[in-house]
Automatic annotation (TrEMBL):
Pfam families: DUF2264, DUF2264_C. This is DUF2264 domain-containing protein. It comes from Halorubrum lipolyticum DSM 21995. InterPro entries: DUF2264_C, DUF2264_N, UCP014753. PANTHER family: LINALOOL DEHYDRATASE_ISOMERASE DOMAIN-CONTAINING PROTEIN. It comes from the Archaea. Residues 11-353, 360-577 form the DUF2264 domain.
Length: 609
């Protein structure tokens, strides 16, 4: 059941009504004391009380900005929950929050509520209720937090307490802000934590680092120099971030926490809230609205109208260990422009498409080359370290149309999430894709990396765009026999109940699949690997529950060898399979790939990385 199915999502009033429509299905899952929300029996790695607190706090990211200028009749329930959740004598008390506790994450929305809507969150409380709220929130000043965007939760809490004249720790707030600013890399780019491979660049950059910085710059009026830095950095990042969105409003899926879905629009909404328009308001309004509309038109809801865990459809297989049933409501951060008056330029602007963007754009800070074809947006990508799933950070390509897949729970060929990846095995059963890289390089629009999965086995890879194709070259050095599977883009296999609607071609070094949803293929110009079209385990792809992956397979004896792949996919099932790059020349020291016209596209020389 889609609770916003009847909402055109065009005007400010429409988006305000969407907040209420998304909140309504949660209400039947409130506890008697209104402090906890438990929509399903699922859980996360943290205690249930923290997961149930998520259900209370996360909708506030949309409710608070809505209530800045509009009526919202749910405040009595929310205030009751706030009072009971912070009362140690009440059975629904949220409890103590020690070091690194999830409860600190959820405090941030309450802090923002204090800053933006004190007439609802603070002023109606009695003196004792206020004291207990302040005591509970101030735990964030006594605890250790993860050294990443989590430090902004302390900032949000203290900004809210300070705004109502309550006890807070402004010195520690400023120290946290200084630490957060140390993660800045320049030209709008942050890492989510100290610089290095353990701090990947993903959506936590726009929807956390920039989002909270812009909120701080707007609600705190006596830190002008820092506020100006936050605004300037966000303005610089906007020109880069625009490349991550296609004409429909979809963003390239990559990294963790993708179940937050239309939080992808939060950065653009925060720009508006902070009065920052490095792009025309029409373009900012357009990319924001298209993303929210696209998401709310997808099957992302449960039968009861709740946001589900998953990406484009419900699936726990793509979740992280910290995703509780309430986690998806982080998406409500997208609605922050509702805090603006109806006559703000953002709301008065007519939606416009993004400006013309180049077909390829290297983004070394993100370790990517964004490729924009006529009907397919994808990013070639270098591996990044993360504890949250290698498939989310180490694929060769990430696509709005075809997304990516996570590994199956079972071993065996075709089970390692090998779409847009090279999976290797020592025994032909236990396959794996890279968890990290030992070296990476961005040279123009060519990406290069080295992976060492086992002692005595190394893989050096070159990636380059050749739109609508891309090329992958691997130089494999091994002292032991190994097996490999390399996949193209995963393709929705809907329609496979009618043989006339789909086709598989696995011959002459080419694996090609066509379904009503589109075309996907991978070719081996060397002709040394066996082509096959493999069915993935259901519910492992982010976009589609049932997919196939065109695949090249081989077994490799000890020694040195080159592997070459030309990859193409399109949402048109009748898309042509011609014009692919071809092998130029190969020897022990170098390999060349050429365009069909004979121009050198990629020259791979295994010099030092």
């Amino acid at each position: 059941m889609n609770p916003v199915a009847d909402n055109p999502l065009q005007t400010r009033a429409d988006f305000g009504r969407a907040v209420e429509q998304l909140f309504e299905p949660l209400q039947r899952h409130y506890s008697p004391g209104n402090a906890r929300v438990r929509p399903t029996a699922g859980g996360a790695h943290f205690p249930d009380v923290a997961a149930e607190l998520e259900g209370f706090s996360r909708p506030l990211w949309g409710i608070v900005p809505l209530a800045v200028g509009d009526e919202f009749d749910g405040w009595p329930r929310l205030r009751t929950g706030l009072v009971n959740g912070t009362d140690p004598s009440h059975e629904e008390y949220w409890g103590r929050a020690g070091d690194y506790a999830q409860k600190h994450v959820e405090m941030a929305a309450i802090g923002v509520g204090l800053a933006l809507t004190p007439e609802h969150v603070w002023e109606p409380l009695s003196e004792g209720e206020r004291e207990r709220l302040v005591e509970w929130l101030n735990q964030i000043n006594e605890a250790e937090l993860y050294d990443c965007n989590w430090l902004f939760f302390r900032v949000m809490v203290n900004a809210g307490l300070r705004s109502v004249g309550a006890r807070h720790d402004w010195e520690r707030t400023q120290s946290s802000l200084d630490r957060l600013e140390s993660f800045y890399r320049g030209d709008g780019w942050y890492t989510d934590g100290p610089a290095g491979d353990a701090s990947p660049t993903d959506y936590y950059l726009p929807w956390a680092m920039h989002f909270y910085g812009l909120v701080y710059a707007t609600v705190v009026d006596d830190d002008p120099e820092r506020a100006e830095r936050f605004r300037d950095r966000a303005a610089a990042f906007a020109s880069h971030h625009a490349h991550w969105f296609d004409d429909e409003g979809r963003a390239i899926p990559h990294g963790r926490s993708l179940t937050y879905r239309f939080a992808q629009a939060a950065f653009w909404g925060a720009l508006a809230y902070a009065g920052v328009n490095p792009l025309p308001w029409e373009e900012i309004r357009g990319v924001w609205a298209r993303n929210v509309r696209w998401w709310l038109d997808q099957p992302i809801f449960t039968d009861g109208g709740l946001l589900s865990v998953g990406y484009r459809y419900p699936s726990l297989k793509v979740s992280e260990s910290y995703n509780s049933p309430n986690s998806p409501y982080w998406a409500m951060k997208a609605f922050f422009p509702l805090a603006l008056d109806a006559d703000h330029p953002f709301w008065r602007a007519d939606e416009a498409p993004l400006p013309d963007l180049p077909a390829t754009r290297a983004q070394p800070e993100a370790r990517k080359v964004v490729c924009r074809g006529d009907d397919h947006l994808f990013a070639l990508s270098l591996p990044q370290d993360s504890v949250h799933g290698r498939e989310k950070y180490t694929k060769f390509a990430y696509s709005t149309e075809f997304a990516f897949s996570v590994a199956s729970r079972r071993p065996g060929p075709g089970k390692a999430g090998h779409d847009s990846a090279l999976a290797l095995s020592l025994d032909g059963d236990q396959y794996k894709i890279p968890a990290s890289a030992t070296a990476t390089e961005v040279r123009g629009t060519t990406l290069r990396s080295r992976w060492e999965p086992w002692d005595g086995v190394s893989v050096e890879t070159w990636l380059a765009p050749a739109l609508p194709w891309h090329v992958r070259v691997h130089r494999v050095e091994t002292r032991r026999p190994i097996h490999s599977e390399e996949g193209g883009f995963a393709l929705d296999r809907t329609g496979d109940d009618d043989r006339a609607q789909f086709s598989h071609d696995a011959s002459d070094g080419t694996a090609l699949a066509r379904y009503p949803s589109g075309m996907s293929g991978i070719a081996d110009p060397l002709g040394e690997r066996s082509p096959v079209v493999l069915a993935e385990e259901p519910n492992t792809n982010l976009n589609h529950p049932r997919t196939v992956v065109p695949t090249l397979r081989a077994s490799h004896d000890p020694g040195e060898q080159w592997l070459v792949s030309a990859v193409k996919a399109a949402p048109d099932s009748e898309a042509t399979w011609d014009g692919r790059p071809e092998l130029g020349g190969v020897d022990d020291d170098a390999l060349t790939v050429e365009t069909p016209g004979g121009e050198t596209l990629l020259e791979c020389v295994p010099d030092a990385l």
